[in-house]
């Protein structure tokens, strides 16, 4: 059904807007464009496959991973190893001790120790024809021992080539030597004077290599490497760079079922390197953990030994006094001694001496907290108690002080972060001080109680003479000092026993091993897919951008939907050398299309209008080049051949064209007639078609618009209506000048030419609006230069004659590949 003008009254603004509005993106044309450019996708697919193959073969560095599992137990308490009691005190869930160990494993201090201990700042690799491969230190036949007192150039690859008999050639890069060298002692950079590139040199194993930017020697590997390398490339890194690289490749997780089991994962370019590092890291962590646990017990041992030495002196002095009284005063055999009271007093004073010793230990702990000298902290066992809350609080306080020192380098003293850390410190300090006050109170209450009991017992001894009472006092003093001495010895033995029997609470369950694990990365398949997909996207992207930026008219369905203007016909591509297709190729599909248009035009004209007079058909377009003149010539030709007297007027006075194809002299034309220079008979020319005359444009006038709109031109057209059945006007493009709009007022039918893949969509907006606003009547569209081989965009039967022997073009027709495949498939499935 051919669309007609929407004549509804009172159309809404949105409805008006939709006229002349085309889709920004044509998915159907986009897909056809992709199929048309299939060879680019095949080319990019091949290129992508080659690039991905080269990458995976020669450039991809395999990444390996090894893991180690260990368990964390809490069989001892220490200020420096947080206990499970923290979880209860602070309401935390999970393994707090494991979290502490995780931080240790990822800490800079721990990994810096490993870097320096294992010389992990020295990196080894080997290079084949193209690809370089990282190797472990143990895979190298020799090690590089760096002189740490000498300045070294880092990130500077040194190639060592075996020369036999423990000889190696040192080959330095052709360029890249630097005067900014690294010191492994100060871990900083220093500048030196300019120097010439050191020459390559052959050195023996254990021989020092000296240059301005390097000093090292080669040490032979005592174990035979499992792989053979033709060269060793050694690169030095700074300590900081090595630590950062290591920390970034370590991951620590906890077992989901047993929270005290940790799984440590290490990634690297070499499997042996990851295995060796993990095992060494955990071994050093076990040592550190045990040392941390023993610090307090060792401090306690030293503290108790100092007290024992002091008490020993007092005990010796007290014994001397007691012996003197025994020998000089003969008081060792006092008659009627109240042994029961004396034993009770001895027991009470022994308890008192023990409590006083514990208070002394409390004083030491309190002083240590106040001075923040945590490394000298003694065990709470020396003060006679074990308190998880106090241990946790001290651990928290120690961590907060450490954090405060770190923050002090970043924040000002009165900043909010510093105020917050000070608040937390005050809370922790208050908690520890409160715990100590509780024990002070308890001990002093016990001493007061003992003193009252001793006073009661002393009342029974008041009956003794003064001399004997003096001896008893000396004996009681000796017993009290002896009890203190024995108490200190007992606690010292306990501390020493802990040091001797302490074990690390880290137990390795599964050590890291090289079991021939495959590489975990890179994901070569994903990279291949990414490379190929990326290259395939390039032509797709170019086509997409071209499609979005391309605003040309390609879709007949969209044209009809957007304009709602009747479509008179579709003209295929003109394969003729000139414009006279109907005359020279009468059996072509294009000629047949013009005949169809000739039949459709009558639907645009009003029947009965000025009967007996000729009909005027005006042909225009948006801009030049859309085939307006071509349509005019052939439409006039096909009407003339239908035995209708027809005249073709070249009224595009600015760009005359018609005369060339008809081989007519353009010396005199319509412009001459409108200016009064010649008569009408002088501008009308005969053609090969008896019923077709042509009036050319003539010379280009200075005022074409005024001539076309003149009263003389209107009379000229009216006069021609009396002589001809059809007047075909080739008018100027409406997108450039407004002449055609004025001429349309006097025409019986108006044809607007749209050229396939040439006419811009926005150019159709003006003619569409004028048509639906009633400013233009009797308007129809012709779709020109349509490529029928595309079979695209319209389904009304135009362009489907090819291949059936109906038109002249069929003799040169070649069936498209896709059509061949389709027909072959249909043939197979239609077989019975």
UniProtKB/TrEMBL annotation:
Reaction(s) this enzyme catalyzes, per UniProt: L-tyrosyl-[protein] + ATP = O-phospho-L-tyrosyl-[protein] + ADP + H(+)
Keyword presence, Signal: no
EC number(s) stated in the UniProt entry for this protein: 2.7.10.2
Record domain AAA: where: 615-757
GO molecular function: non-membrane spanning protein tyrosine kinase activity
Regions that span the bilayer: 38-56
InterPro entries (UniProt xref): AAA_dom, Bact_polysacc_biosynth/exp, P-loop_NTPase, Wzc-like_C
UniProt record similarity statement: Belongs to the CpsD/CapB family.
Name of this chain's protein: non-specific protein-tyrosine kinase
Organism of this sequence: Chryseobacterium herbae
Phylogenetic classification of the source organism: Bacteria, Pseudomonadati, Bacteroidota, Flavobacteriia, Flavobacteriales
């Amino acid at each position: 059904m051919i669309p007609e003008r929407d004549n509804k009254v009172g159309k809404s603004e949105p409805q008006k807007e939709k006229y002349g509005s085309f889709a920004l993106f044509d998915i159907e044309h986009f897909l056809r464009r992709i199929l048309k450019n299939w060879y680019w996708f095949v080319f990019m697919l091949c290129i992508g496959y080659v690039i991905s193959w080269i990458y995976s073969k020669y450039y991809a560095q395999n990444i390996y991973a090894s893991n180690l599992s260990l368990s964390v137990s809490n069989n001892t308490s220490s200020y420096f190893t947080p206990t499970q009691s923290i979880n209860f005190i602070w309401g935390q869930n999970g393994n707090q001790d494991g979290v502490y160990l995780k931080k240790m494993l990822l800490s800079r201090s721990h990994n810096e120790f490993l870097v320096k201990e294992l010389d992990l700042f020295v990196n080894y690799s080997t290079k084949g024809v193209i690809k370089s491969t990282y190797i472990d230190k143990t895979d190298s036949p020799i090690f590089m021992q760096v002189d740490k007192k000498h300045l070294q150039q880092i990130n500077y690859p040194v190639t060592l080539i075996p020369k036999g008999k423990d000889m190696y050639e040192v080959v330095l890069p052709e360029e890249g030597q630097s005067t900014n060298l690294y010191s492994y002692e100060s871990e900083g950079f220093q500048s030196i004077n300019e120097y010439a590139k050191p020459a390559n040199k052959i050195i023996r194993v254990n021989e020092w290599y000296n240059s301005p930017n390097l000093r090292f020697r080669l040490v032979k590997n005592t174990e035979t490497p499992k792989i053979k390398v033709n060269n060793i490339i050694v690169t030095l890194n700074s300590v900081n760079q090595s630590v950062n690289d290591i920390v970034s490749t370590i991951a620590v997780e906890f077992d989901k079922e047993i929270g005290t089991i940790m799984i440590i994962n290490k990634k690297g370019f070499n499997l042996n390197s990851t295995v060796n590092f993990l095992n060494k890291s955990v071994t050093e962590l076990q040592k550190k953990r045990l040392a941390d646990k023993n610090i307090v017990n060792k401090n306690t041992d030293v503290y108790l030994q100092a007290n024992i030495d002091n008490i020993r002196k007092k005990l010796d002095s007290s014994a001397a006094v007691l012996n003197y009284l025994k020998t000089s005063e003969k008081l060792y055999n006092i008659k009627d001694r109240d042994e029961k009271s004396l034993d009770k007093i001895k027991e009470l004073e022994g308890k008192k001496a023990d409590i006083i010793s514990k208070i002394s230990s409390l004083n030491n702990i309190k002083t240590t907290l106040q001075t923040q000298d945590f490394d000298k902290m003694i065990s709470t066992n020396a003060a006679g108690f074990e308190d998880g809350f106090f241990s946790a609080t001290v651990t928290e306080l120690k961590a907060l002080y450490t954090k405060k020192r770190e923050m002090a380098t970043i924040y000002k003293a009165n900043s909010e972060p510093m105020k917050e850390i000070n608040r937390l410190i005050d809370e922790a300090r208050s908690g520890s001080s409160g715990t100590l006050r509780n024990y002070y109170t308890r001990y002093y209450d016990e001493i007061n109680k003992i003193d009252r009991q001793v006073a009661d017992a002393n009342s029974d001894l008041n009956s003794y003479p003064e001399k004997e009472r003096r001896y008893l006092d000396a004996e009681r003093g000796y017993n009290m000092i002896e009890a203190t001495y024995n108490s200190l010895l007992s606690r010292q033995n306990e501390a020493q026993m802990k040091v001797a029997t302490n074990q690390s609470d880290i137990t390795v369950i599964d050590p890291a091993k090289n079991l021939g694990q495959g590489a975990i990365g890179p994901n070569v398949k994903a990279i291949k897919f990414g490379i190929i997909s990326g290259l395939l996207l390039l032509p797709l992207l170019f086509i997409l951008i071209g499609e979005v930026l391309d605003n040309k008219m390609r879709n007949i369905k969209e044209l009809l939907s957007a304009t709602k203007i009747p479509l008179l016909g579709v003209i295929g591509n003109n394969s003729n050398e000139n414009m006279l297709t109907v005359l020279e190729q009468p059996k072509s599909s294009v000629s047949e299309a013009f005949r169809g248009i000739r039949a459709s035009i009558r639907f645009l004209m009003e029947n009965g209008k000025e009967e007996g007079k000729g009909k005027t058909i005006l042909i225009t377009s948006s801009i030049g080049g859309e085939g307006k003149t071509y349509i005019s010539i052939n439409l006039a030709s096909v009407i003339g051949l239908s035995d209708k007297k027809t005249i073709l007027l070249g009224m595009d006075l600015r760009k005359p064209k018609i005369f060339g194809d008809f081989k007519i002299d353009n010396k005199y034309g319509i412009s001459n007639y409108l200016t009064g220079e010649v008569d009408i008979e002088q501008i009308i020319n005969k053609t090969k078609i008896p019923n077709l005359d042509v009036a050319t444009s003539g010379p280009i006038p200075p005022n074409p618009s005024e001539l076309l709109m003149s009263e003389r031109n209107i009379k000229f057209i009216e006069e021609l209506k009396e002589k001809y059945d059809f007047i075909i006007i080739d008018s100027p493009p409406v997108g450039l000048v407004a002449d055609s709009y004025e001429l349309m007022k006097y025409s019986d039918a108006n044809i607007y030419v749209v050229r396939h893949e040439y006419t811009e969509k926005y150019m159709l907006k003006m003619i569409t609006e004028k048509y639906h606003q009633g400013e233009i009547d009797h308007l129809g569209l012709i779709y020109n230069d349509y490529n029928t081989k595309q079979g695209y965009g319209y389904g009304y039967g135009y362009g489907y004659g090819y291949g059936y022997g109906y038109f002249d073009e069929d003799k040169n027709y070649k069936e498209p590949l896709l059509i061949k495949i389709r027909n072959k498939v249909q043939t197979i499935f239609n077989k019975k």
